[in-house]
Each structure stands twice: as structure tokens, then as C-alpha cells.
Design a protein that fits this description.
Helix content is about 30%, strand content about 25%. It has 14 helices and 22 strands. Bound molecules: 1,4-dihydronicotinamide adenine dinucleotide.
């Protein structure tokens, strides 16, 4: 038995970042992980591998669609799927090894195996029980399926199976037009699959700015994805090589079927708490199966904390990381803080989509008077040179004070551009503060400045 200040269960972005911060605070720290490699869902079967496939397939798309116009002639590359998977695996390996290195560098012990909490102050891994003053649960989430749909990870897959298909399918049906469905749907569409997305609601990517939703759906449709909206999937019948998806259209209750080689179920994720022993400890859960925590990420059992996808809030790696740092500060006796009003969201399709803060829908509901500054990438010289003029930046600012309340970007490098707005919001900046900040020319970031200018006297280039 070993004794620690902190034991963290789960080595995803929430857990490993928390471990490093605990070590930096001088706490004796261990991390429990049952997978062969560190990094959790994000590094092993989520964010990182999907970004590798998005990058590779985007390169192909560029070669097929834009190279000739730039005077780059010749045959477009063909897809060597096996090599693409090797590239993806190499990318995973570099990242998971990187986390292992960081654990060693920070003298964090890796307790290999699946952990449980037999009693407050104790973590069991395999046959060994370790002691800890603070225990932090960072066990993440898992895909949630639908009633009537059995996932085999071969023909009917979640994001995990979709990252290692035997070959590029001819026809893929994606259930759910959320982040996972659209990112992975884009990958396979670019690689040559016919991709049909079936979505329950009437708009894609629930919760996003409505104008962005419409433009995003238009652009994806132009790229070849097809959308069946307002459709509830009832069941999926699968053989070893094919599947039949049955759905009902909400508008008239009519039933339809569609055949597919692969069905990707992307209808959300749920907290993963199996085997932790939380029930026996009397740890309170929310109605949605999340671990209930207070403002300091502590459960109702003193000394047991939880962060990331197992608690409420957006299931995002960076939200978990922020909570990981903040809870580490808290257990070290400092003041950990997360500003939940400034957590960006990014969809890594092409173009990228990013948002932070309020949407117009939110502000209308809250009765807040706001103004809108919008600028199209068509007016951005760099974007035009790079065939990236599709999309816009929209900044929402308080009608009276000019304080920035939110930003919504669809366009090139949106996932990077959003962060200058995040920093501005952290500092309580006005749209004018952003508008009067010098932005280098020619960069995509000028579109952000122009949107900020549009909240005042008006943009320059439109
Ligand atoms: P999601 O919650 O984003 O979207 C699920 C979609 O499925 C919704 O639009 C919903 O209306 C639809 N749906 C549900 N039941 C349905 C049915 N019976 N028939 C048709 N449509 C149905 O979930 P997703 O995409 O699976 O992602 C899970 C989590 O992972 C999210 O919280 C997401 O933020 C996170 N994630 C984030 C990424 C990023 O930040 N780039 C990448 C991948 C995942």
C-alpha cells in the first residue's frame, strides 16, 4: 500500500492535466489508468485520431478541388487506407507517449489498472489498496446508443469503431448531426463514401447560432453530404456486412428505410462511472447520471472530487482540463476557478466552426439588448487567396456597454481565431477594444477585427 496526497482516476485531458498541476503544487500524486496507454478517450479514440483523419482527408479534398486552379497540375493522390490508419496510429502514439513522459517528468506514479473507491480516502487498483487525502474522479464518458440499435463496432459503429474501419465504405449512414457525426461524416465523404446524415431535430449541431447552423449545413451539402432532417431513427438491423436503418419522419410519422455499409451512431455520450463503487459510497448523482459536485468540484462525500465528462457541462476536453487545473489548486488549498461563460466550442470540419459565449437565441430569451457585428470571409484577402472565402465572423456585444457577449465563426481557422475573442471576454473587453487592436495584414484574424468594427461605425472592407 502506498500513501498519496492525491489519486486521480482516469488519465484523459482532465485527469493528466490535474495530475501535472497537483505535482506543480508539490502534492504527492498518482494517476490510475486501465488502458495500455495514457490520454483517455481524447488521445486514444477521440480528438487526436479524428483530427489526423480530418487532416489527411482535407489534404485530399484540396488536391482534388483547388490544386489545378493554383497551377498545380497532375493526377490527384489516391487513398492508401492502410497507410492513413498507420499515420493516425503514429499520431496517437506520439501523443500518448508524450503524456507518459510528462507523468515521469512530474514524478506522478501511474497505477496501472482499473480503479475503484472502496472507502473514502482509499483507491483500489487490482488487488492493492492505496491511500489518498484527496481522490479525483476523471473517468470520462462513453458513447450512448439508441434503443433498437445494437453497436457491434464493425458495421454499426460509434466514433471508436469509425476510426478503424476495414475500408472506406461505399455508403455510410450517420445517426445524429452533432459534432462527431459531422466530423467523421466529413472524413468519409471526402474519402469517397456517400454519406447520409439522419437528424432528429430540424437543425444541425444543436445549441449553435442559428445562422451558423444554416450556413454550415449548406456548405456540407455542397461538399456532398446529404441530410435527412426531422427524422427519428427507430432501429438498425445489421448483418456481418450491411445494415438497414429504419427512421420515422416527424412531420408525418411516415416510416422509411435506408441501406448502408456502415452506420455511425453519433447521438451523444454519457458519463462513464462503471465499477468505481460510487453507489456504495452514497455519492449523489444528477438525474442525467452525472456525478453531482459543488462549486469546488467536491461530491457530497468529503475528499472525493469529480471533473470533466462525468460531471455536468459540455463534454469537451478543454473544459475538463480547466477543471483539472482548478481542482488541483483547490485541493492544494488555493482558489481554483473556471469561467464557464468563456469555454469555446470547435468543430474541426472544413470550414471550421467555433463559438464562445452567448448565442442570439440565448440573449433574446434573457431579454438582453445586444448588437451584431458581422463580417464575411469573402472580404478577407488572405481567405480569398486560399479558396477559403466561405463563412463569416459574428460578434455579439451589449447594446449599451459594448461589452462582448459572444462570438460565432464559420470559416478558415475558426478554431484558432475564436481565442482572441475568448481572451477579450476574459478581460471584459468591449467590441471597440478588439476593433482598435492592430491586426496583422493579411491574416484571417482581420475578419474578427472587422466584425468588431461592425459593432461600431462599421467594417472597412464591406
Ligand atoms: P451531440 O450531442 O453533439 O449530437 C447528437 C445528435 O444526435 C443531436 O443532434 C441529436 O438531436 C441527434 N439524435 C439523437 N437521437 C437521435 C435519433 N434517434 N435519430 C436521429 N438523431 C438523433 O453528440 P455527439 O456528436 O455524439 O458528441 C458527443 C459529445 O462529444 C458532445 O458533447 C460533443 O461536444 C463531444 N465532442 C466534441 C468534439 C469537439 O469538440 N470537436 C468532437 C467530438 C465529440
Amino acid at each position: 500500500m502506498a500513501s498519496y496526497d492525491v489519486i486521480i482516476i482516469g488519465s484523459g485531458p482532465g485527469g493528466y492535466v490535474c495530475a501535472i498541476r497537483c505535482a506543480q503544487r508539490g502534492l504527492k500524486t498518482a494517476i490510475v489508468e486501465g488502458r495500455e496507454t495514457l490520454g483517455g478517450t481524447c488521445l486514444n479514440v477521440g480528438c487526436i485520431p479524428s483530427k489526423a483523419l480530418l487532416h489527411a482527408s482535407h489534404m485530399l479534398h484540396e488536391a482534388e478541388h483547388n490544386f489545378a486552379a493554383m497551377g498545380l497540375k497532375g493526377k490527384s493522390p489516391s487513398v492508401d487506407w492502410k497507410q492513413m490508419l498507420t499515420y493516425k496510429e503514429d499520431t496517437i502514439g506520439q501523443n500518448t507517449k508524450g503524456v507518459e513522459f510528462l507523468m515521469k517528468k512530474n514524478k506522478v506514479d501511474w497505477l496501472k489498472g482499473w480503479g475503484s473507491i472502496p472507502a473514502p480516502g482509499q483507491v483500489k487498483v487490482g488487488d492493492e489498496v492505496h491511500e489518498a487525502k484527496s481522490i479525483i474522479v476523471a473517468s470520462g464518458s462513453e458513447p450512448s446508443s439508441l434503443p433498437g440499435v445494437e453497436v457491434d463496432e464493425k458495421v454499426v459503429v460509434t466514433s471508436t469503431g469509425a476510426l478503424e474501419l476495414g475500408k472506406v465504405p461505399k455508403k455510410m449512414v450517420v445517426i445524429g448531426a452533432g459534432v462527431i457525426g459531422l466530423e467523421l461524416g466529413s472524413v468519409y465523404s471526402r474519402l469517397g463514401a456517400e454519406v447520409q446524415v439522419i437528424e432528429f431535430l430540424d437543425a444541425i449541431t444543436p445549441g449553435m447560432d442559428a445562422e451558423v447552423q444554416r450556413q454550415f449545413q449548406r456548405l456540407l451539402t455542397k461538399q456532398g453530404l446529404s441530410f435527412t432532417m426531422g427524422a427519428a431513427v427507430q432501429s438498425v438491423a445489421a448483418t456481418k456486412t450491411k445494415a438497414k436503418v429504419t427512421y420515422k419522419l416527424r412531420k408525418d410519422d411516415s416510416e422509411h428505410t435506408v441501406d448502408a455499409d456502415i452506420v455511425l451512431v453519433a447521438t451523444g455520450r454519457k458519463p462513464y462511472t462503471d465499477g468505481l463503487g460510487l453507489g456504495a459510497l452514497g455519492i449523489e448523482m444528477t438525474k442525467r447520471g452525472q456525478i453531482a459536485v459543488d462549486a469546488h468540484w467536491q461530491t457530497n462525500v468529503p475528499g472525493i472530487y469529480a471533473i470533466g465528462d462525468v460531471i455536468e457541462g459540455p463534454m469537451l476536453a478543454h473544459k475538463a482540463e480547466d477543471e483539472g487545473m482548478a481542482v488541483a489548486d483547490t485541493v492544494a488549498g488555493k482558489h481554483g476557478h473556471v469561467n464557464y461563460g468563456v469555454i469555446p466550442g470547435v468543430i474541426y470540419t472544413h470550414p471550421e466552426v467555433a463559438n464562445v459565449g452567448h448565442t442570439e437565441q440565448d440573449l433574446k430569451e434573457a431579454g438582453t439588448a445586444y448588437k451584431v457585428g458581422k463580417f464575411s470571409f469573402m472580404g478577407n484577402g488572405r481567405a480569398k487567396a486560399n479558396f477559403a472565402g466561405d463563412g463569416f465572423v459574428k460578434i455579439l456585444a451589449d447594446a449599451e456597454t459594448d461589452r462582448i457577449l459572444g462570438a460565432h465563426i464559420i470559416g478558415p481557422a475558426a478554431g484558432d481565431l475564436i481565442h482572441e475573442v475568448c481572451v477579450a471576454m476574459e478581460f471584459g473587453a468591449s467590441a471597440e477594444d478588439l476593433a482598435l487592436t492592430c491586426h496583422a495584414h493579411p491574416t484571417y484574424s482581420e475578419a474578427v477585427r472587422e466584425a468588431a468594427l461592425a459593432c461600431g461605425l462599421g467594417p472597412i472592407h464591406s
